[in-house]
Amino acid sequence: MLQLRSLSHLLALDRRRNFARAAEDLGISQSALSRSLQALEQQLGMRLFDRDRSGVVPTPQGQIAIERAAILLADAADLEHHLVQAAGATAGRVRFGITPMPACALLPLIVSEALGRSPAVTHEVRVRDADALWALLVSGEIEFFVANEGFVFNAPKPHLEILGRFPIGGIVRTGHPLLHGAGPDAKFPVIRSSWSGLPLPTSIERRMLGSPNVIEDFGALGKIAATSDAIWFSSSFTIPGELKAGVLCELPRADSDRPWDVGIVMYTLDRRSQSPWALSLKHSLRRHLRTLERDSQRARGGR
């Protein structure tokens, strides 16, 4: 009989197409992963991957196995959630993902709150781009993920819930030329945490030098913006301390940039029920987003 662990190894290798990186994701040795896949191939009587120096590629039979394994693992995860709900457990594990921008603003708030309320619940959080989180959601490795709106995913059908909105725009150092009479033809590097899903506002795009620099480390992005003439395309919600201290500031918004905010969305799968912990985190996200929005409106009103 097929083992779910072997199928999870199959999906991990398909995502990474590299034994070393897949083994690292799984927390096992490369030799252990190789033995697991060899045993699965022997059990099924077919070759699942073609291997060469450039990596691994699924065979036609392997691609079928991968698609079916993803469905089976997702259903197994759903069964686990149903059983835990029925038992009314107060301990367990919640696995979810979040993209870098909302992670910077919201992750410390919601996880700290959850640990204080339910310290026996274990949190496993993946901070990655939306495309990578979608693959983890479909495979059943995470229960949901949080990202900005604007992404389009193929089947299976996702379920989207807007939790709140983030203001977006350009963030620069206090002495930036754009704040002190830079010429109309002046251009500057643009930095951002992700390339997909969210287009640049017109006012930033016309000032951009070359292509955007994509850096997923928010700590590094803030330091780069504070020590260079780069324009950071982000949200003021991610840097309240730097804005208050006057280290960074927002560029004035142009009428052509509307809308000036973006929806923050919880992505789940229609056919999967949500665990009590996921529902609790969803309520926490909404509450903290409302607080951020309210504080931002008060701050703008006081300017």
* Overall body shape: globular
Count of discrete domains: 3
Query: What's the average pLDDT?
Result: 85
Give me the CATH fold name of the largest domain.
D-Maltodextrin-Binding Protein, domain 2
Query: In percent, how helical is the residue content?
Result: 40-55%
The separation of the N and C termini measures 67 Å
Total count of helical runs of at least 4 residues: 10
Q: What is the SS-derived class?
A: alpha/beta
Q: Please identify which CATH superfamily of the largest domain we are dealing with.
A: Periplasmic binding protein-like II
Describe the structure.
- By secondary structure, this protein is of the alpha/beta class.
- Helices cover 45% and strands 21% of the residues.
- The chain has helices at 4-16, 19-26, 30-44, 60-87, 100-117, 130-139, 202-205, 218-226, 240-245, 276-301; strands at residues 49-52, 55-58, 92-98, 121-127, 144-148, 158-167, 169-173, 190-192, 213-214, 231-234, 248-250, 261-269.
- A 5-stranded mixed β-sheet has the order 4-3-5-12-6, sandwiched between helices. Strands 9-8-10-7-11 form a 5-stranded mixed β-sheet.
- β1 (49-52) and β2 form a beta hairpin.
- The longest helix has 28 residues, at 60-87.
- It is globular.
- The chain starts with a helix and ends with a helix.
- 33% of the residues are buried.
